[in-house]
Design brief:
globular; 39% helix; two-stranded antiparallel sheet; 8-stranded mixed β-sheet; alpha/beta
Length: 363
C-alpha cells in the first residue's frame, strides 16, 4: 500500500501553473480559425432548451455528404470551459475532409454529472438524425469521461438511432472512476457522494462488447490519471471492447491535446483512421468478437475504490489516502519515473487492440 495525496493527483491546474497561457493560445487560435472558415462554420445549433445546449459544426470544402464525422467534447472538470475555446481542434480534421461537431453542455454546480451525460446523449441523437452517420467521439479530461460514457451507452431507447450509434471513442486524459474526486476541491462544484460517483463512473458500467476505445494520457500526468486510462482499457478489454492505452511522451494534462492539431502525429492519424472506417469495415475488424459477460458494477471495484472509499469515510485521510498496488498502479509509477519503460509495459496489460494503425509518436 502507498500513501497518496488525491488533491495533488487530480488538481491539474495546480500541477501545471502555466495552464492559463496554454488555454489562452487555444482560445485565440480558435477565434482565428472560425473567422477563416466563413460559412463553413455553423455556430450555435441548438440540441436542447438549455442555454448551453448548443453545438458548432465545421465543414470541409467539398463532399459534405460523404465526410466522416468527428465529435470533440471539451474538458474542464464538468464545471468550466466552452466549445468556442476549442474550435481549433477541427482545423486539421476539416482539412483532411472530415466534418467536426463541438458541443457545449451545462456545467456543475447548475447540473450534475449524470445530467451532463444525459445532455450529450441528446446531442448525439440530434446529430445523428441530422447527419445520418456515426461519429468517432473524442474528448479531453472531463470530455474523455463523457466520450467513454457515450461509448458505453445502450442507445436502443434513445429515439431513432442505431443501438450502437457511438461505437468508437478516443478518450484523452479521462477520469473514468469518479470516487477519488469525492474528497478533493474539484468536488466542491460537483457535489458527488459515493453512490452518485459510482453512477457517473463509466469504468463501473456494463459496456456492450464489440466497441472500440483508445484511452490516451500524457506521460507527465499524475500517477492517478495514468492509472485511470490503463485500468479502463484493461477492464473493458476483458469484456469484449477493443481497447488500447496510449501514453503520450513529454506531455502534461494540457499539452497532451496538442497532437490534435498536428497532422501526422499518432493521435491525429489514429482518430482520422477511426473516423474514415466504414460501417462494413468496422464490423469486419472489430464487431465480430466473442460475446463476453459484462462486468457488473458490484464486482468492478478495484484500486480506484480503495482510494476513494477511505477518503470518503475518514476525514483524516481526505487529502492523503491509500491505494492498493496492482498492475495499473505499477505501470503508472513507471510512466512517471520512466515513460519509455511504461509504454513497453502497457502493451502487455491490454493487448485487446490488435490493429496496426500509426501510433508510434503517441507512445
Amino acid at each position: 500500500m502507498r500513501r497518496m495525496n488525491l488533491e495533488n493527483e487530480y488538481n491539474n491546474r495546480q500541477r501545471v501553473p502555466h495552464h492559463g497561457e496554454i488555454m489562452g493560445r487555444w482560445k485565440a487560435a480558435s477565434e482565428t480559425f472560425c473567422e477563416s472558415l466563413g460559412d463553413r462554420a455553423e455556430l450555435g445549433i441548438s440540441y436542447g432548451e438549455g442555454e448551453r445546449q448548443a453545438y458548432d459544426v465545421f465543414w470541409p470544402e467539398s463532399d459534405r455528404d460523404a465526410a466522416p464525422l468527428v465529435v470533440y467534447i471539451h474538458g474542464g472538470y464538468w464545471q468550466r470551459g466552452d466549445r468556442s475555446d476549442y474550435s481549433i481542434v477541427a482545423e486539421g480534421f476539416v482539412a483532411a475532409g472530415c466534418v467536426v461537431a463541438v458541443p457545449s453542455y451545462s456545467l456543475c454546480p447548475d447540473a450534475k454529472v449524470m445530467d451532463i451525460i444525459g445532455e450529450l446523449t441528446a446531442f448525439i441523437t440530434e446529430l445523428y438524425k441530422k447527419m445520418k452517420r456515426r461519429p468517432v467521439v473524442v474528448g479531453h479530461s472531463a470530455g474523455g469521461h463523457l466520450a467513454s460514457a457515450l461509448l458505453a451507452t445502450d442507445w436502443s431507447g434513445h429515439g431513432d438511432v442505431p443501438a450502437d450509434v457511438v461505437r468508437q471513442a478516443y478518450a484523452i486524459s479521462g477520469v473514468f472512476n469518479l470516487r477519488p474526486l469525492i474528497r478533493t476541491s474539484i468536488n466542491d462544484a460537483l457535489g458527488l457522494e459515493r453512490d452518485a460517483a459510482d453512477d457517473a463512473s463509466p469504468a463501473l458500467w456494463s459496456v456492450p462488447a464489440g466497441r472500440r476505445l483508445v484511452a490516451a494520457v500524457g506521460a507527465l500526468e499524475s500517477r492517478e490519471f495514468i492509472r485511470q486510462s490503463i485500468e479502463i482499457a484493461a477492464r473493458w478489454g476483458e469484456v469484449g471492447v477493443r481497447t488500447d492505452c496510449v501514453i503520450v511522451p513529454d506531455t502534461n494534462h494540457f499539452t497532451v491535446i496538442h497532437q490534435l492539431r498536428e497532422p501526422g502525429s499518432g493521435m491525429f492519424e489514429r482518430i482520422l483512421e477511426m473516423a474514415r472506417l466504414s460501417d462494413a469495415d468496422f464490423e469486419k475488424r472489430f464487431a465480430e468478437l466473442p460475446e463476453k459477460k459484462p462486468v457488473e458494477p458490484a464486482t468492478a471495484e478495484a484500486a480506484p475504490e480503495d482510494v476513494a472509499e477511505e477518503a470518503a469515510d475518514s476525514p483524516e485521510t481526505s487529502e492523503t489516502s491509500e491505494t492498493s498496488d496492482g498492475a495499473a498502479s505499477a505501470i503508472a509509477d513507471a510512466a512517471v519515473d520512466d515513460p519509455q519503460a511504461a509504454e513497453e509495459t502497457t502493451e502487455s496489460v491490454n493487448a485487446s487492440e490488435t490493429e496496426t494503425a500509426p501510433e508510434t509518436t503517441d507512445g
